[in-house]
Design goal:
- The longest helix is centred in the middle third of the chain and has 23 residues.
- The protein folds into two domains: about 140 residues, OB fold (Dihydrolipoamide Acetyltransferase, E2P), CATH 2.40.50; about 260 residues, BirA Bifunctional Protein, domain 2, CATH 3.30.930.
- The chain is built from 16 helices and 18 strands.
- The relative contact order is 0.10.
- Helix 8 crosses helix 10, helix 11 packs across helix 13 and helix 14 packs antiparallel against helix 15.
- The radius of gyration is 29 Å and the shape is elongated.
- The protein is an alpha+beta fold and about 500 residues long.
- An eight-stranded mixed sheet has the order 6-10-11-18-17-16-15-14, with helices on both faces. Strands 1-2-3-5-4 form a five-stranded mixed beta barrel.
């Protein structure tokens, strides 16, 4: 961490004031508790469209606290703008009202300081709702000047590194920070009403499983054993289905040791939900209902604007198989029988080069989809029937080369992934063995053999549907943000 040794004139001036708070006013520059009765949004709601006379008659007294964003000193009377979590509120400070001692204390204030006021709400001649301060309380001294409002914290990287300043100076950042938990609450409400139980499972796993991803590895000293930070919650939630919980979900952090871009962060949040006696169609209905409700609760409508595009979550989402979509986009028909060599030749003709462990027709199909189809899926689209080679935990479809799986895409990005869950322990063991072969060929994202999970399946897991959805990615769309870093309060950053 970089330590600043040299202070500028403003920083020095603010530090020099610290002793004056204690010596002249017997005030702790870092304050004490202050009882707040109203926030800015509550005051504005109470005032509504009342006239100045009606407001005076209302005689609304409040205790309000916030950060000083603007100071206008005018001799014996001054104005300041305070910011709390809900917005800004103007305050009038008159020496004839608060008294000379309080007004002299107020003269020490700088922008960025946190203060409390008690007084009556009034209307200025220009129609501005204002608190006429009768008491003034200093709460916290700000030792660093805030960035200039229009020319300050404009560097995107600095906004992410110093999110606390971003939240102070950028009203939109605060709106996003407040919208995300509202979205999560909406999802919880929807699933709770559907009879699901929210659970928590371990973040440390001795086995790499539940998804195809590179893990973070840590070491437990007492056991002298390496563990993975979980890449998925899937296998533990399925164990709970074996145990009879029937409908479970978890909203939690996952960790994948991969690159960073506008859609990826090494630690991110997902929801995974599993429903006994359901299937892929059940997960389709669940996804539509859950996302539609979240969109309405966050934005007020199921039709949202995202980066200049209208995304319609109101009407039923499009439903199309992967091979039909590929045929529609490229003319290549993968429903026809072909060898891997024939499929590989088709890929190479179109400039696709496969990793050595991608050695099946199914891998070629998936590569075709990702290269030629995915980016064009702007409106909500379920792409179903994934090749078995890329779906190790999914039940086979009527055609055993494909599985009962869909991924939901919006604006060209995967938003959710769902299965009719594989509950056959013999088939599951075979899939794990195939994953181990892929790992030997160099696929460091392949699953490992989870013997305990296989044993759980041998006790019997009911037929089930399961779905996983990226919380951060849904927040990006509903908050109309260009990058996942805007909706993660403290994203992972490169060193300066």
């Amino acid at each position: 961490m970089e330590i600043k040794n040299e202070l500028n004139d403003q920083q020095l001036a603010r530090r020099e004031k610290l002793a004056r708070y204690s010596n002249e006013f017997h005030v702790d520059p870092y304050g004490h508790a202050f009882k707040v009765t109203h926030h800015a949004s509550e005051i504005r709601k109470l005032v509504g469209k009342k006239s100045s006379k009606a407001l005076d008659k209302m005689d609304l007294h409040v205790r309000f606290a916030g950060r000083i964003m603007l100071l206008r000193r005018m001799g014996k009377a001054s104005f300041m703008t305070l910011q709390d979590k809900t917005g800004n509120m103007q305050v009038y400070m008159g020496i004839d009202v608060v008294g000379k001692k309080a007004y002299d204390l107020f003269k020490l204030a700088d922008t960025g300081d946190i203060v409390g006021v008690e007084g009556r709400v009034m209307m200025t001649r220009t129609g501005e709702i204002t608190i006429r301060a009768e008491k003034y309380t200093h709460l916290t001294k700000c030792l660093n000047p805030l960035p200039e409002k229009f020319h300050g914290l404009t560097d995107v990287e600095e906004r992410y590194r110093r999110r606390y300043l971003d939240l102070i100076m950028n009203e939109n950042a605060k709106k996003v920070a407040m919208a995300r938990p509202r979205m999560i609450r909406s999802i919880q409400e929807y699933l709770d009403k559907q009879g699901f139980v929210e659970v928590e499972t371990s973040m440390l796993s001795p086995i790499l499983g539940g998804a195809n991803a590179k893990p973070f590895i840590t070491h437990h000293n007492a056991l002298d054993k390496d563990f993975y930070l979980r890449i998925a919650t899937e296998l533990n939630l399925k164990r709970l289905l074996v145990g009879g919980l029937e409908r479970v979900y978890e909203i939690g952090r996952l960790f994948r040791n991969e690159g960073m871009d506008t859609s990826h962060n090494p630690e991110f949040t997902t929801i995974e939900a599993y429903q006994a006696y359901s299937d892929l169609q059940g997960m389709r209905r669940l996804a539509e209902g859950m996302i539609r409700k979240a969109a309405k609760d966050v934005t007020g409508s199921a039709i949202v604007n995202y980066q200049g595009k209208e995304i319609n979550f109101q009407k039923p989402f499009k439903w199309i198989s992967m091979v039909d979509l590929i045929k529609e986009k490229t003319g290549v028909d993968f429903t026809k029988e072909m060898t891997f060599e024939e499929a590989k030749a088709l890929a190479e003709q179109r400039g696709l080069h496969l990793d050595k462990f991608k050695n099946s027709v199914g891998h070629v199909i998936n590569e075709f989809f990702e290269e030629f189809c995915q980016a064009d899926l702007i409106q909500p689209t379920f792409v179903y029937s994934y090749p078995i080679e890329v779906s190790p935990l999914t039940k086979k479809g009527k055609n055993p080369k494909f599985t009962e799986r869909f991924e939901l895409f919006v604006d060209g990005r995967e938003l959710a992934n769902a299965y009719t869950e594989l509950n056959d322990p013999i088939d599951q063991k075979e899939r794990f063995l195939n994953q181990l072969k892929a790992k030997e060929l160099g696929d460091d994202e392949a699953n490992e053999m989870d013997e305990d999970f296989l044993e759980a399946l041998e006790y019997g897991m009911p037929p089930a549907g399961g779905i996983g959805m990226g919380i951060d990615r849904l927040a990006v769309i509903l908050c109309d943000q260009p990058s996942i870093r805007e909706v993660i309060l403290f994203p992972t950053m490169k060193d300066k």
